[in-house]
Design a protein that fits this description.
Blueprint: H1 7-14, H2 18-26, E1 34-35, E2 41-42, H3 45-59, H4 64-76, H5 81-120, H6 130-136
């Protein structure tokens, strides 16, 4: 091991929190830490690099299973690793674009509610709130799919 880092030092240097590091250990994304006599975890530079890679993947919205796949490609990818990584990134990009479309529709719905309220309340407060009335109406489908029960 190049150097011993405590979980706190690893957290500070990687940008992850100690509970997140322990969780990643638990699910096998990072190796189980070595233990000192007092039971304190110790990590090395390889752990810092792995954790930094994972954190960056998570910042980009990759789900845990895709992070696992990307780690596998990083460590054992061979000739196809770049193409496989691109395919995973493309899948994630499609998910992000779908979420953006849903958020744009949500934005339009909320903007309409605010606009309707501005128009209805132009002369001052009213006992009949157009936003509350709209929210109370039963609809089959909202901007982003079926309404939750």
């Amino acid at each position: 091991m190049d150097r011993e880092l405590s979980i706190g030092a690893l957290a500070k240097r990687s940008g992850a929190t100690p509970p997140t590091i322990r969780y990643y250990e638990q699910i096998g994304l990072v190796r189980r830490a070595e233990r000192r006599d007092g039971g304190h975890r110790t990590y090395g530079d390889a752990d810092l690099q792995r954790l930094t890679f994972i954190r960056r993947c998570r910042e980009l919205g990759f789900p845990i299973e895709q992070v696992r796949s990307l780690i596998e490609l990083l460590e054992n990818g061979g000739d196809r690793s770049c193409l496989d990584a691109r395919d995973l990134a493309r899948q994630n990009l499609n998910v992000v674009r779908t979420k953006l479309d849903e958020l744009k529709a949500l934005e339009a719905d909320l903007a309409k509610l605010v606009s309707d309220c501005d128009a209805a309340c132009a002369s001052g407060p009213s006992p009949n709130c157009v936003i509350l009335e709209d929210l109370a109406q039963t609809r089959q489908k909202s901007c982003c799919g079926p309404k939750a029960a």
